Amino acid sequence: METEKKSSVVSDVGAWAMNVISSVGIIMANKQLMSSSGYAFSFATTLTGFHFAVTALVGLVSNATGLSASKHVPLWELLWFSIVANMSIAGMNFSLMLNSVGFYQISKLSMIPVVCVMEWILHNKHYSKEVKMAVVVVVIGVGVCTITDVKVNAKGFLCACVAVLSTSLQQITIGSLQKKYSIGSFELLSKTAPIQAVSLLVLGPFVDYYLNGKFITTYKMTSGAILFIFLSCALAVFCNVSQYLCIGRFSATSFQVLGHMKTVCVLTLGWLLFDSALTFKNISGMILAVVGMVIYSWAVEAEKQRNAKTSPQSKNSLTEEEIRLLKEGVENTPVKDVELGETK
């Protein structure tokens, strides 16, 4: 039992580590690919289509070679999930285009309380005072180190609302689909990735044209840009798999809270690799965010231990009527010889 518990902890840490490393890696690769000082590939939605195409290909090869099993999930649920997920991607891109970076960060931070409310509405999930306190600390910490100017307009606000609601719903749906159909994270991803890849590759170029006024066909590919596109796609496979894995193992709320560790890592690596400014405000916000994450991890673990203590008692406790019936059953049952199977 102790060995299984240690193995589970190692797997949990491995899933989080894969998600953080791959997410930070893909942000750094995309920064080099999309920035004007890099390769100026400004087609984010189409690039996401490439990501899901490669992920779908990996899933297809895995199923064909028998490395993963394919389980049935109704097509309408996969289509519904893909629509919500694509709305999340498009909404985020439009929100970033129409709003200031400061308001964009606020909208991303609002996902934590939105996920909490949606899990309460959809799954009747309740949170302890310690968990709520940790969430507030994380939100304040990340807000302090990321939010600068805050400008908003009606269109931008609407896009931000669509992005927050669809992203929150997408992450909750990942967990509920895995539980509902007893399907693994990679198996579910291999079913949703082809639908998202086709839809994003068809619609993505038009979305990108609306965002930056250029079609991808006008972009002049270089060997360096192609290399970084392949790198971005490879990291996206690990990022997508680890996202499904983490939400399946934990919850959408935990994924949001501990996921802000990526924000801290990105700010730190931006300072180390790209000479980005790191002020006292950034540093104090990051420290506060990390403290909040530690408190959240402790609060969730404490809640699990409380539930583990109360659960066996409720299962093993018998009413007086059940005890009386058991006694009567024992007294009235003839004693049998265990070896011979004969009634004495």
Distance between the termini: 40 Å
Biggest sheet details: none
- SS field, number of helical segments: 13
Number of strands: 0
In short:
The chain is an all-alpha fold and 344 residues long. It has 13 helices and no strands.
Write the layout of secondary structure elements.
Layout (H helix, E strand, L loop, with lengths): L1 H33 L9 H21 L10 H24 L2 H9 L1 H13 L5 H18 L7 H28 L3 H28 L10 H27 L2 H8 L1 H13 L6 H37 L3 H13 L12
Can you give a write-up of this model?
The structure is a single chain. This protein is mainly α. It has helices at residues 2-34, 44-64, 75-98, 101-109, 111-123, 129-146, 154-181, 185-212, 223-249, 252-259, 261-273, 280-316, 320-332. Helix 1 packs across helix 11, helix 3 (75-98) packs parallel to helix 8 (185-212) and helix 5 packs antiparallel against helix 10 (252-259). It is globular, with a radius of gyration of 25 Å. The two termini are 40 Å apart.
